[in-house]
Amino acid sequence: MAVYQQVLTDDGFVKQEQLHFPFEERGLQFGDGIYEVIRIYNGHYYLLTEHIDRLYRSAKAIRLHLPFRKQDLCKQLLELLEVNHVRTDAKLYLQATRGSAPRDHAFPNAAINFYAYIEDLPRPTENLLQGVETITTPDVRWQHCHIKSLNLLPNVLAKQEAIDHGCFEAIFHNNGKVTECSSSNIYIVKKGIIFTHPETNQILHGCVRSKVKQFATSLSIPFVEKRFLLEDLSRADEVFLSSSTSEIMPVIKIDGYKVATGQPGALTKKLQHAYEQDAGIRD
Length: 283
Ligand code: PDD
Fold this sequence. Notes:
It is built from eight helices and 16 strands. Strand 10 and strand 11 (193-196) form a beta hairpin. By secondary structure, the chain is of the alpha+beta class. Strands 7, 8, 9, 10, 11, 12, 13, 14, 15 and 16 form a ten-stranded mixed β-sheet that branches. Strands 2-1-6-5-3-4 form a six-stranded antiparallel β-sheet. It folds into two domains: 6-120, Aminotransferase class 4, branched-chain amino acid transferase, N-terminal domain (D-amino Acid Aminotransferase, Chain A, domain 1); 125-279, D-amino Acid Aminotransferase, subunit A, domain 2 (D-amino Acid Aminotransferase, Chain A, domain 2, Alpha-Beta Barrel), CATH 3.20.10.10. Bound molecules: N-(5'-phosphopyridoxyl)-D-alanine. N-(5'-phosphopyridoxyl)-D-alanine is lined by residues 37, 155, 180, 183-185, 204, 206-209, 242-245.
C-alpha cells in the first residue's frame, strides 16, 4: 500500500526517506511510547478529535509530556493531508516515544520522538458485506489495555494465530470472560440487545466503539456495557467487531462454528449503514 511522501515529525514535515532514528530509541528498545491509527475517507479524517483526545489520555497514563497543544497538532495533521494531496481512503499512523537516549529503564532526559504518516487503505468492502471468521484465545495482556501503547506483542501473536487458522481476527478472553480482539472491540447481539465489555482498563476504549454506542441509542437499540462469556458468544444471534480500519464488521464464524445462520445479522447491517452515513462515505 502506498505511503505518502511527506511525514510530520517533531521537526516539521520531512520526506519519508529522511526519517532515521538512532538504535538507542525508547520505542525500539522498550516499546516506551504510544500511538494512534486514524481513518481517512476521501481525504478527510474521521473522528480526529476523539483520537487526539485518546492520544493525550494515553500520554498522561504513561507520564509522557507531549510538547504541543492539541489544537496545534490537529492543525498540523490537517496540513499533512494537504501537503500530500490526499484524496483517497487511507489511514494515518502516529506515534510518540520517550525519545532517544542510552539504554536505561529509568526515564531519560530526552525530547520525545514523534512522527505521523499517511498510507492508502481501501475499505474492506468484501469482508464488510460477507462477514469474517475468528478464533478465541486467552487474553495474556497487561492490566492497562486502555492505554494505546506500543507494547503489542500479545496482540501481534494473537493476530498471527488467527491468520494461521485462516481467520481475520482473534477474540481475547480472560478465563472465559470476553474482553476485546487483537485490534478491535467485540459485541454480541442477543434478543435485540447489544452487549459489549465495559470501558475498563481491560480494553481499549475504541473511538468506533463510542460511535456504535451513539448509533445504537439513536436507533433505539439497547446497548449494555457488561462482561459476557465465551458461551454467550457461541449462543449469540449476531456478533460483530469494530475498529478504525475494520469499521463495523460482521463475525460469521468463531472457532469454526457458525454464528446463528452464519450470515451477517440485521442489527449489524443497520449499524454499518449508520456508520457509513456518519463517516460521509460515498460509493
Ligand atoms: N486498533 N482494541 C484494540 C486492542 C485495538 O488495537 C483497536 C484499534 C481497537 C479499536 O479502536 P478504534 O475504534 O479507536 O480504532 C480496539 C488499531 C486500528 C490498530 O492498532 O491498528
